[in-house]
Recover the amino acids of this structure.
């Protein structure tokens, strides 16, 4: 069934079709409609779930952790300051190996007070042990939530499904809503081997000494390393049922490209428009949109950038005192693999400043006209 | 690809108008992208909404700066702001007004159409006398003037989106379609 | 007091044999924390006013109400003394554990 829905409601539909059993969330602009629709679905019986109203995002994640530990499929959504407040609990979810799925609307961090998009909120949670998916269309949001539950539950690692404020959260697009019966066949009920139950009373997350803690973390990392293969496999399974492949990256004309743009989020779709224009001008440019940031898809990124002469990474985020975060990742991915290749790091679109096809033209022009990047960061559209 | 901008005031249903239009266009197999002005909305303040229409997937997620057409839901905005900003040559300016197109002093490179959506809305008891809800009526005029969709698709979309007085809204859209 | 099952400290030799989730291997039905105690609460029921404060305050849920009177579950009571501190009738005494 095709429907015109906003990105926030795409998250709600994803959570509904996944038959989430517990939803605990606190409203924040620009995420509010996600849980608004889910609360309506819970109230009118469309979704058989317990909706828990909480007093903060910290509590929202705590409630999801409790629910997940008890064996329920748990979903929440937040943004920016709300995600920051969840930070401690994010570690509890991943460390506890609880496959909660969280929708995060990328909104820049205050101050100055802001509600517009950039990725510093979710990228600040990079090392919490969560899988991170970055979406570029409402269709991808619905599909990814369903896939995220499947991947998370298979490997006992929580997932974050991330989308840009306004450019996706408030943008209406045509979405093919997957059929419930088919989703049920793709995503069977959550059935963890251990759960909090009076029949088998255990302590969860208790004191763990130096003789065991490191092994727990080793196991989390080892399972994280299994995520890329799991995403590709469940993505192909999804394609068989629903006709849409859900992979680690979205590569566009990369095979013969001399310059590859590395992008993420909605800017990763706008980049395709620019690539088409530049191809018409005879420039061999391709676009590699990173869909999964954690774990970083090293292998496929190396393979797709192999024949490129230069790589231009466009970051809608910044690690102060270093570079754009995707640029760091790219450099570390290709280091030691196949000789020197200049990586240009661009920063654009912070705090909701628009990233347009013209921004990418500027990026490509700079990359063409320089042998190597003269600065660690090239700023696009900043009033210096 | 067609890109359009709607001008209204917060609370007039400007965003809903672009949503209805998106729904109607999607019913006929088009790709659409509709979005409000990015940010905070205040009742009565000038607001925008936007729509992109194409027969293939729309990848451009940047904002619309050079629309093909503009729609002015609130006639007082014509005096308050430049509704033609970035408007492409030959573009339509569709205004909710009881005046005639010639009464507006726009450069000749633009085409002007007027529809008295306020009168239609009041007659169909949409909103209140002081604050009539004109968004459904104006979509009828847009669809006709720009030849975007069949009237039936629009009426169906209004039935799907509007939960309060859907029939009155459909009647208003039909009247505007016939008058425009 | 029921006989205590001997608690052995488990040290895993490999990551593989460890559970994925950080959780107790022991089942709390036999992992009786009462062995941690070196002082024990004793309730003088003749002075008890049945207020239920000891039952409410016990952090280990080791005070149960049986037929409206408080009873200490020594299988799990760790001897923290909070019940004795909070008892308004001062009818709970902490006495040395006799090993």
């Amino acid at each position: 069934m095709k429907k015109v829905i906003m990105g926030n409601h795409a998250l709600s539909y994803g959570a509904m079709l996944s038959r989430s059993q517990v939803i605990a969330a606190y409203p924040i602009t620009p995420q509010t409609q996600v849980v608004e629709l889910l609360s309506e679905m819970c109230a009118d019986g469309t979704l058989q779930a317990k909706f828990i109203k909480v007093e903060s995002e910290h509590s929202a994640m705590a409630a999801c952790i409790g629910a997940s530990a008890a064996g329920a499929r748990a979903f929440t959504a937040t943004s920016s300051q709300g995600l920051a407040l969840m930070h401690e609990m994010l570690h509890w979810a991943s460390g506890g190996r609880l496959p909660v799925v969280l929708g995060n609307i990328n909104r820049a961090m205050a101050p100055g007070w802001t509600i517009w998009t950039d990725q510093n909120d979710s990228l600040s949670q990079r090392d919490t042990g969560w899988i991170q998916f970055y979406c570029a269309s409402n269709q991808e949001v619905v599909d990814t939530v369903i896939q995220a539950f499947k991947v998370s539950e298979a490997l006992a690692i929580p997932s974050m499904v991330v989308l840009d404020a306004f450019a996706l959260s408030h943008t209406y697009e045509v979405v093919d809503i997957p059929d419930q019966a088919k989703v049920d066949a793709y995503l069977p009920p959550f059935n963890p081997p251990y759960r909090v139950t009076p029949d088998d009373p255990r302590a969860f997350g208790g004191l763990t000494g130096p003789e065991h803690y490191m092994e727990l973390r080793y196991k989390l990392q080892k399972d994280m390393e299994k995520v890329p293969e799991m995403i590709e496999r469940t993505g192909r399974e999804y394609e068989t049922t629903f006709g849409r492949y859900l992979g680690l990256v979205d590569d566009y004309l990369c095979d013969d490209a001399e310059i590859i743009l590395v992008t993420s989020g909605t800017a990763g779709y706008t980049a395709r428009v620019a690539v088409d224009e530049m191809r018409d001008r005879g420039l061999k440019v391709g676009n590699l949109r990173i869909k999964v940031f954690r774990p970083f898809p090293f292998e496929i990124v190396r393979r797709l950038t192999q024949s490129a002469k230069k790589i231009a990474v466009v970051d809608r985020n910044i690690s102060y005192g270093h570079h754009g975060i995707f640029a760091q990742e790219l450099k570390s991915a290709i280091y030691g693999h196949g000789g020197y290749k200049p990586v240009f790091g661009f920063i654009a679109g912070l705090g909701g400043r628009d990233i347009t096809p013209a921004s990418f033209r500027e990026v490509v022009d700079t990359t063409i006209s320089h042998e190597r990047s003269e600065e660690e960061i090239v700023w696009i559209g900043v009033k210096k | 690809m067609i890109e359009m901008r709607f001008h209204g005031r917060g609370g007039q249903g400007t965003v809903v108008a672009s949503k209805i239009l998106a729904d109607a266009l999607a019913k006929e197999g088009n790709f659409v992208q509709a979005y409000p002005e990015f940010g905070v909305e205040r009742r009565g303040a000038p607001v925008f909404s936007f729509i992109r229409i194409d027969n293939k997937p729309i990848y451009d997620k940047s904002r619309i700066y050079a629309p093909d057409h503009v729609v002015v839901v609130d006639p007082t905005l014509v005096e308050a702001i430049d509704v033609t900003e970035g408007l492409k040559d030959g573009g339509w300016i569709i205004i909710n007004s009881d005046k005639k197109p010639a009464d507006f002093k726009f450069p000749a490179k633009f085409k002007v159409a007027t529809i008295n959506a306020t009168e239609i809305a009041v007659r169909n008891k949409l909103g209140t006398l002081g604050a009539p809800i004109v968004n459904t009526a104006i979509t009828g005029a847009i669809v006709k003037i720009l030849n975007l969709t069949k009237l039936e698709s629009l009426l169906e979309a209004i039935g799907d989106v509007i939960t309060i007085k859907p029939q009155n809204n459909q009647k208003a859209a039909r009247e505007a379609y016939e008058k425009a | 007091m029921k006989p205590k099952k001997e608690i052995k400290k488990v040290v895993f030799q490999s990551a593989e044999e460890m559970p994925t989730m950080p959780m107790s291997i022991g089942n709390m039905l036999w992992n009786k924390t009462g062995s941690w105690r070196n002082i024990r609460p004793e309730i003088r029921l003749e002075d008890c006013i049945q207020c239920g404060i000891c039952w409410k305050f016990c952090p280990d849920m080791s005070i149960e109400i049986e037929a409206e009177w408080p009873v200490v579950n020594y299988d799990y009571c760790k001897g923290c003394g909070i019940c004795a501190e909070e008892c308004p009738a001062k009818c709970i005494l902490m006495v040395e554990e006799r090993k």
